[in-house]
Amino acid sequence: MSQSAPEPFHTSPSRPAPPPGVLHVWLWQVSDSPLSEDEILSLSAAEQQRANRFRVARHRALWVRSHTGTREILAGYLGISSAQVRFRKNAHGKPSLDAVPATTGALAFNLSHSEAWCGLVIACDAEVGLDIQVPHPIDPHLWRRVLTPSEHQEMNALPRSEQDAAFFRDWTRKEALGKAEGRGVYPHLRRTTTGLAPFTGLFPVDAENGDGAILRWHLQDLPSTPGLFGAVASSRPAKVELRHLTFRA
Ligand SMILES: CC(C)(COP(=O)(O)OP(=O)(O)OC[C@H]1O[C@@H](n2cnc3c(N)ncnc32)[C@H](O)[C@@H]1OP(=O)(O)O)[C@@H](O)C(=O)NCCC(=O)NCCS
User: Fold this and answer.
1) 179 CB less than 6 Å from ligand 1?
2) Where are the domains of the chain?
3) CA atoms within 13 A on the CB side of 158
4) Closest atom of ligand 1 relative to the 131 alpha carbon
5) pLDDT by residue (tens digit) across 216-246?
6) For ligand 1, atom 48: residue with the closest CA
7) What does the pLDDT read at residue 106?
8) What region holds the 4'-phosphopantetheinyl transferase domain (predicted)?
9) Does domain 22-245 have CATH number 3.30.420.140?
């Protein structure tokens, strides 16, 4: 459906919003097959412009379908059509919902994609950030740009066979934190210690927000998903409910 063909809001969301203290994390995989015109036209003008900037058709297909899927999921919570979902962005590019129907409360969300995987976290009472990564071999030179001195020591003590997994745990936590704040990962590289061992629960992090205020965030690893690392950050303690999804695309 084209963005230029507005239709009235439905009144009944087909997906109940997560209750306070719960984060819905949706995970799905998208196809890189050639895009149809309808898929592209279902996005906003800004999204279509962004899609057109991809030079590699496979990357464009994965990106477009991460957005059509995100719209479809959010539309279900809002009781509107995918084309009616509107976004605004903060100064660092973090999207949030704009102009939601009065019948639904505010929802925070954050999208992440890695290869064909997409992840979307939804919350009703917290700011949130999500990062997912399909692992690949890591050049140890990258450790210096990401880890704090204590994390570097922790890394050096690990057997080589465990180091890449440790790196992805650390990287996704720092990305999730920066995405929850809305500033991105860079303020946390070499500065914020999350450790490398798997978390057994919530991990609190106090971080300066760039304006001198210290805010507390709650980090957690995503429940184990084969072939994927992931972490979520939230401004309140919350429990993750994982939802796997199969899209036709
Ligand atoms: C933007 C950033 C958070 C994206 O992280 P990433 O691991 O590459 O990608 P992810 O798939 O996890 O997340 C991308 C999604 O996060 C969201 N996003 C974009 N900017 C964001 C921000 N500042 N905070 C939170 N979320 C953001 C968008 O939905 C984006 O999806 P889209 O590109 O399809 O619109 C990360 O690159 C970063 O920290 N950037 C800082 C800004 C910067 O200097 N970027 C230069 C990159 S070299």
Assistant:
1) yes
2) 22-245
3) 18
4) 12
5) 999 999 998 999 999 999 999 999 999 998 8
6) 186
7) 83
8) 128-191
9) no
With a 6 A CB cut-off, is 178 part of the ligand 1 pocket? yes
Q: How confident is the model at residue 3 (pLDDT cuts 50, 70, 90)?
A: very low
What global pTM score does this model have?
Answer: 0.93
